[in-house]
């Protein structure tokens, strides 16, 4: 059994045709994880008990010759900010080092009902704050494509398992780029859905107006197959949208001739690595050859996106993280004398440096006297950034950009320079602030063999067009990556 090449579809087919059992396949994945993951560090927890129980259910269905559900037997890994019933869920933080979630996130219930097998939980930056995975409260993740480099963040573990072949698909979260940027750095596909497309019930909140759960996979089609199971209104999340969910996989493979593709000048200026630029320009040429009309556009508030994002995200984080106080759950500081000392020491010992930095920044931005100058101003600029996209999408069907200005950087390279780290998000935070969907897919390698990512952005709730364009680019570029 060669598990390295498995996709969502081929896994399901192989199990339906009894080429192997789900249980044997799960064995093979855990063997590979045991061999390769200690050096990569992508998994924090393995959920063997649940995985084998689910595999037995799928094997029973297959044994009876019953029709198999859409994701039957597909082994997935789940970012550790997503709640999994009875399974350790730490959000990459020491403050939750002993926390087993008492319920499943809606996405987990939906994926498991469709037959997916959760192999384990993946490492991430603490509370999803970071761009390199070096902010994990436990240990960093190494990029499987070059182990001296970061996999990106904050969903670095979920991107790394796809690149390493230690899961077929995975879940990440994207608040400011945390699905697209690690997908780009690891040479895999990652999709951030529209805000509200996928329920956030059971997701440990970072910045509630920006957080989205989305899939990683080897192919655009795999991302589509996961999204169509995960998406849709959930009564448990009042911000989940009541918008019909198309069968996204039906759009994958449809021609794109005649579509208008916007290329924003602001994303091709200073700071863009020359090899990244060349690869993205080559991909745009392929889209033109496929019959798309390439339209130069302007997203004129792009340069304000980083400060805007880091005000909104830290403000929301400071409020969301107030719940970790050692009272109801989480690790509690020992031998304390007063409740105040208990809160203070629990939070001081439990949170890492970046989380503390953000709580302080966010608390400052929200405090009386500064609220108007910072938070309110940031909200206004956020509207202008969203309006840039509205105006662009009046003229084009999708927008194509580099996902990141550079390829994966070295472990430690930016760890002591938070500002340099924040700048790694320059091309991803704009779509996050606007709430629109974004896909990153591999579009070649640089001269060191490091993957380069192409970002495809779409209108609200138009993941179908994003996936269609991404699939054509993926096939036109086949052979240029990996
Ligand atoms: N790198 C960004 C940050 O640190 C984005 C994180 C995310 O999308 N979760 O906030």
Share of residues in helices: 25-40%
Fourth CATH level, the homologous superfamily of the domain at 3-251 = Amidase signature (AS) domain
Tell me the name of the CATH class of the domain at 3-251: Alpha Beta
Head-to-tail CA distance between termini: 22 Å
Helical stretch tally: 16
Named at the architecture level, the CATH assignment of the domain at 3-251 is Alpha-Beta Complex
The name CATH uses for the topology of the domain at 3-251 is Amidase signature (AS) enzymes
Q: What composes the largest sheet?
A: 11 strands, mixed
Strand residue percentage: 5-15%
The distinct bound ligands, ions and cofactors come out as: glutamine
Low-confidence stretches are none
Shape: globular
The succession of helices and strands, N to C, reads: HHEHEHEHEHEEHHEHEHHHHEHHEEH
Indicate the radius of gyration in whole angstroms.
21 Å
Structural class: alpha/beta
Mean pLDDT value: 96
| Major beta sheet, strand line-up | 1-3-2-4-6-5-10-11-9-7-8
Total count of strands: 11
Description:
With 482 residues, this protein is of the alpha/beta class. The protein has a domain of 249 residues: Amidase signature (AS) domain (Amidase signature (AS) enzymes, Alpha-Beta Complex), CATH 3.90.1300.10. 40% of the residues lie in helices and 13% in strands. The chain is built from 16 helices and eleven strands. Strands 1-3-2-4-6-5-10-11-9-7-8 form an eleven-stranded mixed beta sheet, with helices on both faces. Helix 7 runs antiparallel to helix 16 and helix 9 packs across helix 16. The chain starts with 7 loop residues before the first helix and ends in a 6-residue tail after the last helix. The mean pLDDT is 96. It binds glutamine. The site of glutamine (GLN) has 14 residues, from strand 4.
């Amino acid at each position: 059994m060669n598990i390295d090449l498995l996709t969502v579809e081929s896994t399901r087919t192989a199990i339906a045709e009894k080429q192997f059992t789900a249980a044997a396949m799960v064995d093979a994945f855990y063997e590979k994880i045991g061999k390769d993951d200690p050096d990569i560090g992508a998994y924090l927890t393995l959920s063997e008990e649940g995985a084998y129980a689910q595999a037995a259910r799928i094997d029973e269905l297959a044994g009876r010759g019953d029709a198999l559900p859409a994701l039957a037997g597909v082994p997935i890994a789940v970012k550790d900010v997503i709640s999994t019933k009875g399974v350790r869920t730490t959000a990459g933080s020491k403050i939750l080092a002993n926390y087993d979630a008492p319920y499943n996130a809606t996405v987990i219930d939906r994926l498991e009902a469709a037959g997916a097998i959760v192999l384990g939980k993946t490492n991430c930056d603490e509370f999803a704050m970071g761009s390199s995975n070096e902010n994990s409260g436990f240990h960093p993740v190494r990029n499987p494509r070059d182990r001296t480099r970061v996999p990106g963040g904050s969903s670095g573990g979920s991107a790394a398992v796809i690149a390493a072949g230690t899961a077929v698909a995975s879940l990440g979260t994207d608040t400011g780029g945390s699905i697209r940027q690690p997908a780009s750095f690891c040479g895999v596909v990652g999709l951030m859905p529209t805000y509200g497309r996928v329920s956030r019930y059971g997701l440990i909140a970072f910045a509630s107006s920006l957080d989205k759960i989305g899939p990683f996979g080897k192919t655009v089609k795999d991302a589509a197959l996961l999204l169509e199971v995960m998406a849709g209104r959930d009564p448990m999340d009042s911000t989940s949208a009541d918008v019909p969910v198309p069968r996204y996989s039906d759009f994958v493979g449809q021609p794109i001739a005649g579509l208008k593709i916007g290329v924003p000048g602001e994303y091709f200026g200073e700071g863009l690595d020359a090899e990244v630029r060349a690869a993205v320009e080559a991909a745009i040429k392929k889209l033109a050859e496929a019959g798309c009309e390439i339209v130069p556009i302007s997203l004129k508030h792009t340069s304000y996106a980083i400060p805007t994002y880091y005000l909104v995200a830290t403000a929301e984080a400071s409020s969301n993280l107030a719940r970790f106080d050692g009272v109801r759950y989480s690790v509690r500081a020992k031998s304390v004398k007063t409740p105040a000392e208990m809160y203070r020491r629990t939070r001081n010992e439990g949170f890492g440096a970046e989380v503390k930095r953000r709580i302080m920044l966010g608390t400052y931005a929200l405090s009386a006297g500064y609220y108007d100058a910072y938070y309110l101003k940031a909200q206004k600029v956020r509207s202008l950034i969203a309006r840039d996209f509205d105006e662009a999408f009046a003229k084009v069907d999708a927008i194509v950009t580099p996902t990141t200005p550079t390829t994966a950087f070295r472990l430690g390279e930016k760890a002591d320079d938070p500002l340099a780290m924040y700048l790694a998000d320059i091309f991803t935070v704009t779509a996050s602030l606007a709430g629109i969907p974004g896909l990153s897919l591999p579009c070649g390698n640089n001269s060191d063999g490091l993957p380069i990512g192409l970002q495809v952005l779409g209108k609200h709730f138009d993941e179908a067009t994003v996936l269609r364009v991404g699939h054509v680019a993926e096939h036109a570029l086949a052979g240029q990556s990996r």
